[in-house]
Write a structure and sequence with these properties.
Elements lengths: L1 E4 L9 E6 L10 E6 L4 E7 L7 H9 L4 E2 L1 E6 L7 H19 L6 E6 L8 H14 L4 H10 L8 E8 L5 E9 L14 E6 L5 H14 L15 E6 L15 H20 L7 E9 L2 H13 L1 H8 L5 H9 L14 E2 L2 E2 L2 H10 L4 E7 L5 E8 L3 H8 L4
Helix pairs in contact: 1-2, 2-3, 5-6, 7-9
Length: 400
């Protein structure tokens, strides 16, 4: 059973959070700090597959080799990506300062950054911000919300979800997460600019966390697209401090209910990211069924959700089914076009009244596109958003 709770990261016992302003951005909070009271705990991460990786990702991947973390530090306003050796030095300095103020090893600190690619961090401000955040760590609701706000860039609202799950052994655990992302969204992560931090009090091995996270990401963040661009700094982290004292979740003894709770939470966060797509007016949900296999179902759904022509059609409330069938055709999925069912019936346009009804439906804030490939039994759902004038305005003057 999954119960949705109010609140954020600090609903998970043992974790402290803070969000402060360091002056990296022109306005608003821009330093987030998360720490576990019990020190290093099992952790897992998933990172962008972009060949160009931000300096913080490179360092965090290094620190995660032993499968444990004690703290996570993130700044917004500067991605610290494509910044050469200095960028790596700055990322290391962020972890060292955090470790100094929290009295832990720097290798137990994960660092993340989001913002403009190619710009360098103002390290004096960052250092002061880390010190302030360390002094403000708290398990309060305000601290949790400030943490969610501090990682925002072009986001219009903080994204947080918390659930309570009853595991197979009868123990109850809490899973909480925050995320950021509104543009440069088409995460392609192994085992997302987007970032998510997930916490739980479940007892689990780092290997089990990696497996659970990989499975959940495949159904959530890897199935969303705002603009088709994969960031240099996409990252998802999962930490488990074990305070629930459940039977440990391991690769040999996974817990289906924990997996279901994690799936639900990541899917909710992913949906929030797409709903907040830069300049968007409509969320687009593409449901593909009866594909040959899951891989082809996912390809088909993402092709439709990511099509610029479908996006602008939704923005203009134009039920142009031809753009949907065209995107399915280049998706890589195998099917017989004459059998596809959408706003068409066996390859022919539906009745005029169906198109009129579709125009009315497209006034809704959320648009569903259902596709039956009639080629098998697999299904997949992808999420996207429309492409608007405001998206162009936001991204045509991002550096200015």
């Amino acid at each position: 059973m999954i119960t949705v709770l109010k609140g954020g990261l600090t609903r998970v016992p043992g974790f402290l959070a803070a969000g402060v302003r360091a002056g990296i951005k022109r306005r608003g909070l821009d330093i987030m700090l998360l720490a576990n009271e019990d020190g290093p705990v099992p952790a897992a991460g998933s990172f962008t597959t972009n060949l160009v990786k931000g300096a913080p990702l490179q360092l965090t991947m290094e620190h995660l080799r032993n499968g444990k973390l004690a703290a996570v530090l993130m700044n917004s306003g500067c991605a610290n990506a494509y910044t050469g050796r200095r960028g790596i030095r700055d990322a290391r300095q962020m972890s060292r300062l955090t470790a100094k103020f929290l009295k832990m090893h720097s290798s137990d600190v994960a660092v993340a950054s989001t913002g403009l690619i190619g710009s360098r961090l103002p390290m004096r401000r960052v250092g002061a911000g880390i010190k302030a955040a360390a002094s403000e760590l708290s398990n309060s609701r305000e601290a949790s919300l400030n943490a969610a706000r501090a990682i925002m860039t072009t986001d219009t609202f903080p994204k947080e979800v918390t659930v309570r799950v009853k595991l197979e052994d009868g123990k109850t655990v809490t899973i909480a997460g925050i995320a950021k992302g509104a543009g440069m969204i088409r995460p392609r992560m192994k085992v997302a600019t987007m970032f998510a931090l997930i916490l739980t009090d479940a007892a689990a091995s780092s290997a089990a966390l990696r497996a659970a996270l990989s499975s959940s990401i495949g159904k959530s963040f890897n199935m969303i697209t705002v603009d088709g661009d994969t960031s240099t700094n996409d990252m998802v982290l999962l930490l488990a401090n074990g305070r629930a004292k459940n039977r440990p979740i391991t690769l040999g003894h996974p817990d289906r209910k924990f997996q279901a709770g994690l799936d639900y939470l990541l899917t909710r966060l992913a949906r929030m990211i797409v709903r907040d797509g830069e300049g968007s007016n409509h969320l687009i949900e593409v449901r593909v069924k009866n594909a040959r296999n899951e891989q082809e179902a996912s390809r088909a759904a993402l092709a439709v959700a990511g099509s610029n022509l479908v996006k602008v059609a939704v923005f203009g409330r134009d039920p142009n089914w031809g753009r949907v069938i065209a995107s399915l055709g280049y998706s890589g999925a195998s099917f017989d076009p004459s059998k596809v069912i959408h706003l068409i019936k066996r390859g022919k346009p539906g009745p005029k009244r169906m198109l009129e009804r579709a125009r009315d439906i497209m006034r809704s804030r959320e648009i569903e596109i259902h596709v039956n490939l009639a080629a098998g039994k697999a299904a997949a759902t992808a999420l996207g958003c429309d492409l608007t004038y405001d998206y162009v305005k936001i991204n045509s003057r991002y550096t200015t």
